[in-house]
Amino acid sequence: MAASQSERDLPSALCSEFLNFSAKDTASLWLVAADLQQEVYRHLAVYVPRILCQGPSGGSSNSSREEQREELACQLLLLAPLEWLLLGEEPASGLALLQEKNQPSPLCGHVFKVGEPTYSCRECAADPTCVLCMQCFLGSVHKEHRYRMTTSGGGGFCDCGDAEAWKKGPYCQKHTPTASNRDTEEDPVAQLPADMVARGYSIFSIILKYAVDMLTWEQEDQLPAGLEPPDRGDTYYCMLFNDEVHTYEQVIYTLQKAVNCSQKEAVSFATTVDRDGRKSVRYGDFQFCEQAKSVIVRNTSRQSKPLRVEVMHSSVVAHQCFALKALSWLGQVIQYSDGLRRILCQVGLQRGPEGENSSLVDQLMLNDSKMWKGARNIYHQLLMNSLLMDLKYKKIFAIQFAKNYRRLQTDFMEDDHERVVSVTSLSVQLFTVPTMARMLMVEENLMTTIIRTFVDHLRHRDLQGRFQFDRYTAQQAFKFGRVQSLIGDLKYVLISRPSEWTDQLRLKFLEGLEAFLELLKCMQGMDPVVRQVGQHIEMEPEWEAAFTLQMKLTHIISMIQEWCSTDERVLIEAYRKCLSALSHCHSSLPDGEQPISLSLAGHCVETFRYQVSQDKVSIHLPVCRLLAGLHVLLSRTEVASRFPEQLPLGELSPPLLIELPLRCLVLCAQVHAGMWRRNGFSLINQIYYYHNVKCRVEMFDKDIIMLQAGASMMDPNHFLMIVLSRFELFHIFSSADCRKRYREANKDVVQQQNTLIEEMLHLIIMVVCERYVSGVGQVEPFDEVRREIIHQLSIRPMAHSELVKALPENGNKETGLERVIDSVASFKKPGVTGRGLYELRPEWNKHFNLYFHHYSRADQSKAEEAQRKLRRQNGEDTALPPPVPPPLCPLFASLVNLLQCDVLLAVEGAVLQWAVEPSGGGWTESMLQRVLHLVGMALLEEHQQLENSSGDDDITFSYTSKITRPGEAPSTSGSVLALLESLQNAPHLEIHKDMITWILKMVANIKTMRERSSSISTVTISQGQGKEETVRDKDKAERKRKAEMARLRREKIMAQMSEMQKHFINENKELFQQSLEELEASTSAAAENSPPSMELSCVSQVCVGPRRVGGAERRQLVTCILCQEEQEVRGHGRAMVLAAFVQRSTVLSKNRRRNLPNPEHHDPLFMHPDLSLGIHTASCGHIMHATCWQRYFEAVQLKEQRRQQRLRGHTSYDVENGEFLCPLCECLSNTVIPLLPHTHTPDHSVDHPSLEVWLKTTSQQVAVLHSAHRKQIDGVAEGAGPAVPEGFRVDFIPQNPFSSSISEMITTFSMSTYKVGLKVNPNEQDQRVPVLIWSTCAYTIQSIERLLMDEEKPLFGSLPCRQDDCLSSLTRFSSACWTAAPVTTTHTHFIRLLSALVPDSQVENTPCILDIDMFHLLVYCVLSYSSVHSLDQSGRSVVDSAHLHLLHLVTVAHLVQILLTSTTEEVCMDQDSVGSEEEELTCQLHNTLRKHLNSSVLPEVTSGWQLFRCIKVGILPFLRAAALFFHYLNSTAPPADLLVTGPGQWEALCSYLSLPSNLLQLYQSQHTLLEPLINRWCCHPGVRQMLQEGGVSVRYPRESNQLIELPEDYSVLINQASSFTCPRSGGDKSRAPTLCLVCGSMLCSQSYCCQTEVDGEDVGACTAHTFTCGAGLGLFLRVRESQVLFVAGKTKGCFYPPPYLDDYGETDQGLKRGNPLHLCVDRYRKIERLWRQHGVAEVIGHAQEANQTLVAIDWQHL
Ligand SMILES: [Zn+2]
Ligand SMILES: [Zn+2]
Ligand SMILES: [Zn+2]
Ligand SMILES: [Zn+2]
Ligand SMILES: [Zn+2]
Ligand SMILES: [Zn+2]
Ligand SMILES: [Zn+2]
User: Fold this and answer.
1) Residues 6+ apart with CB under 8 A from 1029
2) Residue 24 has pLDDT above 80, yes or no
3) CA separation (Å) from 1708 to 782, 800, 835, 1640, 1704?
4) What whole-number distance in Å separates Cα of residue 15 and Cα of residue 7?
5) For 353-357, 1316-1320, 1326-1330, which range has the lowest pLDDT when averaged over its residues?
6) Measuring CA to CA, how many Å separate 660 from each of 466, 574, 670, 723?
7) What is the 133 CA–ligand 2 centroid distance (Å)?
8) Contact 1519, 1553 (CB under 8 A)
9) What are the backbone dihedrals phi and psi of residue 1315, each rounded to the nearest 5 degrees, phi first?
10) Residue 1121: in which H helix or E strand, if any?
11) How many angstroms does the Cα of residue 1228 sit away from the middle of ligand 5?
12) Alpha carbon of 643 to those of 128, 413, 569, 634: distances in Å?
């Protein structure tokens, strides 16, 4: 159909032109033309509209055939002449020659597709934007380094070969420059012949200009001069453009209305518009198109601006299409030659006559935002292939880009396309090259430009000129979102620090810094808050925008500091500038007001009149914080000490410096104290982010540093008094009775005060103690990271990703974690679940600081608890003294004086005094703990000084002597030391006792040190030590006593608990019995060498036939889990049932291509050996009364009905389909199996008829049944009926052996199996009902046999109890289910089944033996025979004889089946010269078969050795399954040899099944009887046909199915997925490529394009696939997400951890971290086992029960 249509469309004229046209001639004509451009244009004017203007699909075509035709015509008629002209010869050979001569630059330049994996080396990449393609990566040195793997968002290219991008190993093997490679300086154009260069210039400029003109063309009806078509028709397109405002659904709906198309077409239009940016939706005359346009505009203009639609003349569209093709063509041609590439670059960047910004590339860039997506993509691609690949022109282009930067960004702000399709996104390619960035900074002042552009785009300011984000409109918010990309550009520019500075660079950087300070000034003090009193705030103020800005700028601020740190002059200048910016900000601090004067402990200070709780306060202080950062740098680089004269240190006013950060910290304290509750969540969120790892480096941390800087420059007493005053706590410590007043005050106020005091003490601890910033303390950055990790791991062992999250990342996304982690922690690998954990090595515990500044309150208490526990475990005391801090840098050295200043001593004294008399609420233990910590710090300091000093003179610290002085006013108490001593034995301070002891010991220690240094007496020291020793001993003894008592207590509790447990077990016997049995089973399986018990060692254990041992006269007692009543299982008793889950299964399928059977007409009687669809039954093993279960299920139904009325949606189980959760274990179930009693041991006195006799009798019986049935149907009595065997009564109706309740349950389970197995509505009359039950019995046994085999477990005794119970009840049930069906049904089934073994002319359509699964046949025959046997009233036969004969027959048939399908090719192998008996017999049988088949289709075999092996291996699964079947059917105990694995299995198996161990004797001994049967099997036409056509699909043994093999390296999968295209939408990339783990198909999931209709509902590709591949159940790997997906049916699914782990033993669901992932085989096997055990549905059920949000997901759309 498509063909004829396009034939018609192709104008015949064009056809003939095709034939007559010669590209070569055209090219030579052009070559001599006076005006080449005119000639080429004339050609294009004629042909372009004719080729690319072909009706409805023109523009962008959707029929692939048409597309091909267009493509061909373009190539032959339009591009070929250009190629001839350029090359001067046949294009193919010309291009090949060019390529051969080309000496390519070493750049790889591979442009990334969406979803393609990219690699970045974390050790060698200049910055994280430097990436390699997979091919380059695998050939590079970085493969062995620490790397990060990500998936590309599309665009960008491989940086292999760019020396600047890599610190090491810039070239992969492929791109390593060789000696013959040209020097990069050499001009590649010089390599080309001169005339080609000339032609190249002219053609490239004509074509590029044409393309640029057409793409930037804005008229819909006119064309540029020279391109007007010769014959202009009234043909138009109605062109629909993309926008980001309207949704897919809106567009689809509108299109259906406007252009009258189907839903499918509309979807396709919408998809193309989304992808390409535009699409013609109608073709016709102007009027016709206008009409569609107006409908679309009208329909979409209601809420928003209308969709953009234009009616364009067809020739304009055609030329635009060709322009795109021409650009692609240019991109291809230049790939052949670096010379041509450079020519194109020159042409593109050549300035036009209009001067500035007039080159063709400029024109494209400047019109970027006006073009549609498809056009942009193509020219961006060309820019990447040309300008960005040529290092010389890349620079020139970069300059143009930088010159136009502001304008491009402004265009982008107005543009509503994503950034990836904007030309501005090229910045990453240009700015990240360090030399380029520096050049642009120097020459184009890029840094300043970016910052100014940014600031100019954020216009909303308050009166003070600060940013204001409150009351932002949607439009402004959108713009704010866009403008953030500029910060990204700034980051690129700054990402690598300069190693050398030029004066120019200094100048421009400082200019940039000035601009940046202007930006920070706009942020300083933004979003101020005022405490709300009385009423709660009405509206939560906006806060996120300001924090977004802060977060985005965090790295920039850090980078600017890093730049400053590399040059002293820059640093000094930057410090000056920052200081002056800060003074500008401070000018708004109230200075007119009278300062207040404070005095305490004999000191006096003046300060502002300001209260955080009443005045405005802001969290945003970036200028202060930048200054703090620079201040640290002054210290770190020692600039402060070396050039103090150059620094404006004199201008610093310490009280001013600390003012704003202090206010901010006080705000946090007050919020903690609950004073700001009425200000809502907005403030809480701000405080949270202030401390959060993403912001704290440039917020909280810097505020602490600023306080440290200020404090180190002030009198410590003054500093503390100001702190007290800002905390609004001054009055508490300044007057003795004030405290009393507060005790009587309002309880809330007291509590607030207490919290504030705690917070203030904590702040002082931090100011003195936090020295792990290089420049504050004498540490390296390394120490800082290590300290963070130590403190994280002090909370608990953590996974790698948790640690990464807790550490701040730098601009390179590095935390420094890997450098230190191994030195402080040991790694513990994960098991099959969970993740790897790092545990702190014990030697680092002494570095633990309880008041670590990055702990939240929760972290702190968790860490405290963990540390105390650890100490107790180690038998140590529980004191957590401060760790020894590193020494301070000189600039901060005076900080320590805070610890011994009078004001702090007064505060300490006051708190201790309160602790001594702890009446009232005005005191907390936390306060005391903090004071003890401060005291400890002071003692440590003094100790350090003493230890490091040579004499007394350089010791400035004398804390011990100060604390012995009695307190001064206002606290009139004793000295601090005296207070501590009195607290030591205070009973209410038990917890702190160890700490106080530690302090007192410390004091004693210091005293001895001081004495020693003055008197140099060694005696005192040893005495002191001795005393210490005894104290320690005493402590130890005490602790031991306590530990002993604790142990006794524990034992007593244990005893009590075990008593309780026993009681519990009695109550829940069933449960525990099971788990005990499971335990036993596993131990018996494990203990291979233990002697088998007497009962089991009985050798003659037989499970089938007249000799079988019943072994099951034992009573079965079970307990109902619902009513706890015990019940015996009896045929006439109350029915007991087992909860069960029946599902379709394809786990064993050897043929996934087979279509699902038609439920109405499917005949399931013969299972095909490919087992393509089976029914599996599983159970959790929980037993209930049938009546109890019914009541329970009704309740579930009722609950579900009520729930559905309340809220729509699904539960994890589908009640309407009979699903419920087991009331005990919540296992998903959908039916119940009734328990039936054991069969009785046969009467051994009855004769066992021979096979011959039995066959004769049976065929007589069959004949009688045949005629009886015919009578029933035809109603005609035939003259002489067949001879009736004695005692056989056709009309006999056997008595139902079961009670009505059991019968009812038999029907229930039958119907469930029938319903699930066939997917039909229940129908008790259907003849197929019993077959399906036999089928699930056989299939379940088969699948369990496979599992046991593959897991190398013994056949018996290793199954978990629940499976054992399930198989046992299922098998016994199957043997009884015929009682619920009409007798004749079962008779008919038996007759048909038997005819497969004993061909019967009266039965039609019997399949050949190659088409039958023999185990299923055996099970069906045995189970259906009972109904025939029931008619035999002679009492002279037992059913067991028949079972044995049937087993023999089926076994022989299976032997034949295996021989027929074996493909032994004769391999000469050394073997015994004389074949064994088995081998000979095998040969005989094989030759017999050859005879019957006329030898042509079976190969000749001379030795039976291989054939026999084949048979033995092939038949084993059958025998094993048969053994399981008869074991469960007849309740015969298994022989000992089968309870273990190991040798002797075969013999044991054969003997258990009453078979000769040489199976071929079965055939040999009944040779005469079997020979005719074998002959007839072979003569079945199906056999010959299949063997001749080689159609044998199943060979024996059937190999077990496994999940597909997965690659070891996850990126291989990503790469595979990235080249996968959606099968439905012509080469489009799939958004969610998903891999079926069962069959390996890649699917396009979660997308409109690949939805399919299944049972009248559109479902996604995964769900649709499950119906063909997994009978409704599927296991997938979502490749982009690295996530396993389980789907069952249409409504159920869950995600499961993927089997891929990184080196830290963690999965990466969502692929967010980018650590290399490798396959964890154990985890994958676990998933596979889950699948093979049919446990996936259950996992989904449990997952959905545990997580209700999973229920709400539309799984069917995946
Ligand atoms: Zn590459
Ligand atoms: Zn490479
Ligand atoms: Zn590397
Ligand atoms: Zn019950
Ligand atoms: Zn259960
Ligand atoms: Zn698709
Ligand atoms: Zn599949």
Assistant:
1) none
2) yes
3) 27, 11, 11, 22, 11
4) 10
5) 353-357
6) 16, 21, 15, 12
7) 8
8) yes
9) -65, -50
10) none
11) 8
12) 37, 46, 10, 10
Higher pLDDT, 1601 or 1050: 1601
**How remote is the CA of residue 1586 from the centroid of ligand 7, in Å?**
27
CA 1181 to ligand 5 centroid distance, Å: 6
CA dist 120 and 145 (Å) reads: 10
Q: What is the mean pLDDT of residues 620-627?
A: 96
Report the separation in Å between the CA atom of 99 and the middle of ligand 1, taken as the mean of its atom positions.
19
Q: Tell me: the pLDDT tens digits for 1014-1033?
A: 765 444 334 444 444 455 56
Three-state secondary structure call for residue 1722: helix
How deeply is 588 buried, as exposed, middle or buried, from its count of CB atoms within 10 A (0-12, 13-18, 19+)? exposed
Amino acid 1493: pLDDT: 82
Ligand 7 center to 76 CA (angstroms): 43
Q: How far apart are CA 1592 and CA 1601, in angstroms?
A: 18
Sign of the CA dihedral with 572 first, then 574, 577, and 580 last: negative
User: What are the tokens at 1411?
Assistant: 């088409």
Distance 1646 CA to ligand 6 centre (A): 8
Q: Is the pLDDT of residue 1034 over 80?
A: no
Q: Which residues of 1189-1226 are buried (b: 16+ CB within 10 A; e: fewer)?
A: bbebbeebeeebeeeeeeeeeebbbbbeebbbbbbbeb
Q: What is the whole-number distance in angstroms between the Cα of residue 1134 and the centre of ligand 4?
A: 10
How many Å lie between the centroid of ligand 5 and the Cα of residue 1143? 17
Taking the centre of ligand 1 as the mean of its atom positions, its distance from the CA of residue 121, in whole angstroms, is 14
All residues at 6 or more sequence positions from 356 whose CB lies less than 8 Å from its CB, including other chains: none
Q: Tens digit of pLDDT for each residue in 1097-1132? A: 444 688 888 888 765 566 788 889 888 888 888 888
Q: Which residue has the tokens 């809330």?
A: 748
Q: How far is the CA of 492 from the centre of ligand 4 (A)?
A: 72
> Residue 492 half-sphere exposure, CB side, CA atoms within 13 Å?
22
* Alpha helix stretches (DSSP H) within 261-302: 263-276, 286-300
Q: Tell me how far the alpha carbon of residue 155 lies from the centroid of ligand 1, in angstroms.
A: 13
Please tell me the distance between residue 1301's alpha carbon and the centre of ligand 4 in angstroms. Answer: 14
Distance 171 CA to ligand 2 centre (A): 6
Query: What DSSP element (H or E) covers 235?
Result: none
Residue 1531 — pLDDT band, cuts 50, 70, 90? confident
Cα of 876 vs centre of ligand 5, distance in Å, is 48
* pLDDT tens-digit readout, 282-305: 888 899 999 999 988 888 887 778
Instruction: Please tell me the distance from the alpha carbon of residue 177 to that of residue 174, in angstroms, as a whole number.
Output: 9
**Cα(1423) to centroid(ligand 5), Å:** 28
Alpha helices in 1221-1286 (DSSP H): 1251-1274
Question: What is the C-alpha to C-alpha distance for residues 1148 and 1171, in angstroms, rounded to an integer?
Answer: 6
Residue 1072 has pLDDT above 50, yes or no: no
1139 CA to centre of ligand 5 in angstroms: 7
Query: Cα separation of 581 and 546, whole Å?
Result: 20
> Which ligand is closest in space to the CA of residue 1648?
6
pTM given for the model? 0.81
What Å distances lie between residue 582 and 658, 750, 945, CA to CA?
12, 37, 37
Q: Which ligand is nearest to the CA of 1189?
A: 4
Residue found by looking up tokens 């052996």 in the block? 1297
Reading the block at residue 109, the tokens are 């330049």
CA of 1127 to the centre of ligand 4 (A): 9
Distance 486 CA to ligand 1 centre (A): 28
Residue with tokens 């020519």, as numbered in its chain: 343
Contact in structure between 322 and 248 (CB atoms under 8 Å): no
Highest mean pLDDT among 887-896, 1529-1538, 1610-1619: 887-896
Q: How far is the CA of 1229 from the centre of ligand 5 (A)?
A: 8
